[in-house]
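hey
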């Protein structure tokens, strides 16, 4: 998929995620070889009622962001965070603002 292509998939109802919340989903991606590969994602519903989706993988080592306690957010819920390394990410852009992957983005 090139940067100009956009694929839209329905994974849950709009009311399944509360405002200011996030939810993990386990999808599968079919490779060109026909093999199915796990594709963990997270969907964030912002406080302004927008929906954003990211791969549920820290750019530092691929660990699920909600590894450990199952939470996606910092204690004040202003940033996404990696439960293993403590890296923090801007919710709107996915940019890592602190931690071992600073300057990298969620995809």
């Amino acid at each position: 998929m090139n940067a100009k292509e956009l694929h839209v998939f329905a994974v849950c109802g709009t009311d399944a995620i509360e405002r200011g919340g996030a939810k993990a989903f386990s999808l599968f991606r079919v490779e060109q070889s026909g093999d199915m590969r796990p594709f963990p994602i997270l969907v964030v519903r912002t406080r302004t009622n927008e929906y954003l989706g990211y791969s549920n993988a820290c750019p530092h080592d691929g660990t699920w962001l909600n590894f450990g306690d199952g939470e996606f957010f910092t204690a004040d819920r202003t940033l996404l965070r990696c439960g293993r390394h403590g890296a923090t990410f801007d919710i709107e852009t996915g940019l890592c603002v602190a931690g071992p992957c600073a300057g990298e983005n969620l995809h």
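The beta strands are 21-30, 36-45, 51-55, 79-81, 88-90, 96-98. The mean pLDDT is 92.
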